Amino acid sequence: MPPQPTILIVGGAGYIGSHVNKELTRRGYRTLVLDNLATGHRDLVRWGEFLLADMNFADQLRLIFRTHRIDAVMHFAAFSLVGESVTDPQKYYQNNVAGTLTLLQAMHEAGVRRFIFSSTCATYGIPTTIPIPEDHPQAPISPYGRAKLMVENVLADYDAAYDMRYVSLRYFNAAGADPDAECGERHDPESHLIPLVLAAAAGRREAITIFGNDYDTPDGTCIRDYIHVLDLADAHILALEKLLQGGGSCVYNLGFGQGHSVREVIETARRVTGREIPVIQGYRRSGDPAQLCGDASRAVSELGWQPSRSDLEYIVRTAWNWHKTDWTRE
Ligand code: UDP
Asked: Is residue 15 domain-resident?
């Protein structure tokens, strides 16, 4: 029997990468997790082999590709704070663009030609149609979104020139956690809505601030498309299998297609946790579109993706379970 494929997970000590690592392992793949632990966590790498290395250093990558037989690379290693990318674009272009080019160069030299890339709905900018299809114009409004779009463009050129096959997955709002609470979201500082709402529910923060209540939405707060991290993990594995079976390069939206407002998220968290959640009404956060919802029908029809865990209540319940477990480790 041929050996199971080996997948290099770059940034596998982070939120989404750690869930994909668990799922790949469960399905019998061999995983190598490369992470510099800048934002990742060593204790989230509970499966596969851990390689403490930095994709920005070509020598480290060359050594890894020389000493391991790697069938495909999944790339999660990126800074992902939109606001920070505006104040410190160098950090984003250096790591998210230049670092990715260094990784692609090492793959190219080693003859590894299958690549799964974590892209984002932030490449679309302000949507002109909702839900957003993949062929919506890409006009990002932040260095974060521009850096991701640059890599998407690089990948299209590498496909044409070097037969590098890739799948770019444009995530909407990744949320929720492993129902066994073996991995989950842990950012420092935290800026995402659901972990902050749950921290307020636990009394670890005084309140949650709602950024703006005068948007053109039914309750005035922003609407986002929350997608469970395990549904994302499924899509990564389907995309990987497409490439391993000789499929061509492609781009997919990964969203649930059903938006929820900030107020709905808070109400759901009140219900799930049974706790008071104090709210402060704040100003709009700059760069926030009123509504972001993805049309993921292409991933459904072409990959056979069936997001089944992205009900908001389940997302919040698994996140709450994870955070409660994680807080006891502090
Ligand atoms: N949000 C909020 N208060 C917070 C954090 C976020 O009202 O403390 C809102 C934010 O304006 C956005 C939504 O929650 O409309 C989701 O924000 P998040 O940062 O989680 O993800 P993003 O949509 O920016 O990727």
From this structure: yes
